[in-house]
Automatic annotation (TrEMBL):
Signal peptide: none annotated. Gene3D superfamilies: Acyl-CoA dehydrogenase/oxidase, N-terminal domain, Butyryl-CoA Dehydrogenase, subunit A, domain 3. GO terms for molecular function: acyl-CoA dehydrogenase activity; flavin adenine dinucleotide binding. Keywords: FAD, Flavoprotein, Oxidoreductase. Its cofactor is FAD. Coiled coil: none annotated. Residues 197-332 form the Acyl-CoA dehydrogenase/oxidase C-terminal domain. Belongs to the acyl-CoA dehydrogenase family. Pfam families: Acyl-CoA_dh_1 (PF00441), Acyl-CoA_dh_N (PF02771). Residues 6-84 form the Acyl-CoA dehydrogenase/oxidase N-terminal domain. It comes from SAR86 cluster bacterium. This is Acyl-CoA/acyl-ACP dehydrogenase.
Length: 345
């Protein structure tokens, strides 16, 4: 069995990596913070021109039919760049659910896609405050038993403060009119929960790697006692610990993506495992990177805090570590699978 990524999957990853290296720099993110306008329309348009926003839609809906593994690789690069725009949310949460929606709702979403590079926001009890609602054409709103499709003009909402200024959050005040349904709710709710966990896991892996790279560069440049502080064993160990956590988490993300692609009955468990492991890696990356920067990483002058703030925010979205641990524990203790050193879930 070949576990390597396909040429097409790596090409998609490399294309988005190259674009974001040019278009999503720390200075451009800072400019968005200063202007209180983190959604960069020019950057969004360029991403759209590459076909990324519809990349994982089927050809029937004007997409490229990209699979979840390729999507996870791309989203990892979005995390690494600290991309503010909700490209991951559009692709992982809305596009990937299209086959599960009732026909009438599919038509509504399809018409928005066909009208151009429009964004559809999504809110769910595990992530209740939608991103960039002011830039969205519509909102998909999940509650405990139904889901609603609401055009932005039929919404009243207000902005919320965020730990990460790149994440423009909103609270919904009232809804004038919506398309509401409970059809196929359990399947849809399960699917969006799994995809939310996997999406944030992929973003966190990218963010953790970015923080590690920034810290590695800093400790090689910073001198103390006549030599780079990166030559000191304590610093080496801190950064090596981050690298180990990242390498342990990455396979869980790719396994979860393949599990969704393969329609594995354990895909929700795998997505929870991916989110748990990635959150652990990102948490350690935040902690050790601050130390490696001499506690200056949190200050405005250092780029590190751009990615650290986003990581902290994403750790709490779509189920924090405790939530994911609980899902994993309940699934394993109620399943009839054999467990132990000779087995895996």
């Amino acid at each position: 069995m070949n576990f390597n990524f396909t040429e097409e999957q790596t090409q998609f990853k490399d294309v988005i990596k190259s674009l974001l290296a040019d278009e999503c720099t720390p200075s451009s993110i800072r400019d968005g913070w200063s202007a209180k306008k983190s959604f960069n329309q020019s950057r969004w348009n360029k991403i759209s021109e590459l076909g990324v926003l519809s990349s994982n839609l089927s050809e029937e809906y004007g997409g490229l039919g990209m699979d979840q593994v390729a999507l996870a690789l791309m989203v990892e690069e979005m995390g690494y760049a600290g991309l503010p725009e909700p490209v991951a949310e559009q692709t992982f949460l809305v596009n990937d659910l299209m086959p599960l929606f009732p026909e009438g709702l599919k038509d509504e979403i399809k018409s928005i896609h066909e009208s151009g590079n429009q964004y559809i926001a999504l809110a769910h009890p595990l992530s209740p405050n939608p991103l960039f609602l002011g830039h969205a054409a519509a909102l998909l709103l999940f509650d405990e038993s139904t889901y609603q499709f609401i055009l932005k003009d039929d919404l009243n909402f207000k902005p919320l403060a965020s730990n990460d200024p790149s994440r423009e959050l909103s609270a919904i005040d009232s809804i004038k009119k919506s398309i509401s349904s409970s059809e196929n709710f359990e399947t849809l709710n399960s699917a969006v929960t799994a995809r939310g966990s996997l999406m944030t896991a992929a973003l966190l892996i990218g963010l953790a790697q970015k923080m590690l790279d920034l810290s590695s560069a800093y400790v090689l440049d910073r001198n103390q006692f006549g030599k780079p502080i990166g030559s000191f064993q304590a610093i080496k160990h801190m950064l090596a610990d981050i690298a180990v956590e990242i390498e342990f988490a990455k396979p869980t993300v790719y396994r979860a993506a393949h599990s969704l692609l393969d329609k594995n009955p354990k895909s929700n468990l795998h997505c929870s495992h991916a989110k748990y492991m990635s959150a652990r890696a990102a948490e350690l990356a935040c902690k050790n990177s601050i130390q490696a920067h001499g506690a200056m990483g949190y200050t405005w002058e250092m780029d590190l805090h751009i990615y650290m703030r986003k990581a902290w925010s994403l750790m709490a979205c779509w189920g924090n570590e405790d939530k994911q641990q609980d899902i994993i524990y309940k699934t394993l203790t109620t399943s009839k699978d054999e467990l132990g050193v000779l087995y895996t879930f």
